[in-house]
Amino acid sequence: MLKIPTTGGQMELQDYFNVVRRYFKVILATTLIGGVTSAALAFLMPRQAPNYTSTVQGVLLNNQAAADLQDLIEQASNYSATTVVLV
How many CB atoms lie within 10 A of CB 37? Predict the structure, then answer.
């Protein structure tokens, strides 16, 4: 069991070194098992080329079409702001 220092409950740097020294075998074993496991999985898993896809949509408008669209947007926002729904 881990001993907690009695000096006000605060650990000094030496206390941390003692913990690492005491559990060094566990720390080392866990690190090695994780490294070996990840290396084995990376080696044994089938390699697939990455598949990247993307789509882009756009609208090209001349000046008059842009002005008409802006008018429609303003009309729609005014309409939705003044609409009252009766239930």
Answer: 10
- What would the two tokens of residue 81 be? 């702001």
74-78 own/partner pairs: CB under 8 Å, 24+ apart: none
Q: Domain-by-domain residue ranges, the chain? A: 13-44
* Long-range pairs, 46-55, Cβ under 8 A, ≥24: none
List per-residue pLDDT tens for the chain, 87 residues long.
Answer: 556 555 667 888 888 899 999 999 999 999 999 999 999 998 998 888 888 888 988 877 788 888 888 888 888 777 655 555 565
As given in the structure block, the two tokens for residue 32 are: 């090695």
Q: Is the pTM of this model over 0.90?
A: no
Which residue type occupies 37? Answer: T
Tokens of 65: 């079409």
SS3 content of the chain, % helix, strand, coil (to 5): 60, 0, 40
